[in-house]
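User: Sequence for AMP-dependent synthetase/ligase domain-containing protein below. Tokens please.
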Amino acid sequence: KIQGSAVKEFLFSQALASGKSRFEKQQFGCGPFWDAIVMKKIQALVGGRVKYMASGSAPLSAEIQIFIQSCFNCPCRQGYGCTETTGGSAIAVTEDNTTAQVGPPTSVTYLRLRDWEEGNYLFKNGQRGEILLGGPSVCSGYFIDPKNPDDSIIKKNQQDFVTIDNVRYFCTGDIGEIDALGRIKVIDRKKDLFKGATGEYVALSKVEAALKLSKYCEIPCVLGRIGESSVIALISPAVPELIALAKSLQEPSEDALELCTKPAIVKALSEALTQQCKKAGLIAFEIPKAFRFVLASDATPAWSPDNDFLTSTMKLKRPVIAKAFKNEIDAAYASLK
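Assistant: Structure tokens for AMP-dependent synthetase/ligase domain-containing protein:
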């Protein structure tokens, strides 16, 4: 949402509408007119000469991709890869605006899909399966100290790396799909699937991607507990929006930690996040049935690489979070009884 007069807000919304229309025609930017009167200042924030943007590490929503291309007048493409494969192993083609895909493999990458029967992802059912990345960019394995070998690392090397037809592959744990044009879509993650009591699988990262689109959400962590029928979500809220919401509900306070536990605030946030999930197209069993809102003691995000709840690439350490926030998780599930 633009900060400024009603005229500025109207012009910005019209520019974005033009950008969305151009996006659907396989173009980028808002067009010369809107660039000149609206977007030029935004483009100047990054130098004004950006020709290409790439996104990795986490899924890029269609909404954000359209927004970036509209504002910065350049293509924004998703890439895919892992530390173990020396970074980028696939990247979307510059001329292709199609969302939710990471393009074909790079020229040095072999890609295979391996059946994962437990999750019912089978190659015969629409070219789906676990993504294996192979070729010269794949590392030799995780380092084992010859003076003090770690059995868990030895086992991990045996599980995560395989050789097929003389090609060494890294088993990513990601579930992929290859479409008719040879583009890869990352649709799930083996470790991030929750199987509910009714047997339905919920992709936790998919739910988190939907929650991230809410202005109230800084970092989401969706969790499921064995034996339960639904998932719950721990949310590290966006503090400025949290304070603004409290003010709008006639409960003004600058104490973000206190606001995270006020019933009226929790209710309003939960309703807003549930609506965001529905807007993103999640079906009923995928939507968290309870939310808890958490921050660090200094009202900064609850999870960061510094406190060891996120990896250096900003990925959730879900088991670590689940252990540290057991009381909040217990309370969330108790509220459903």
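The chain has three domains: 6-74, 81-90+100-187, 196-334.
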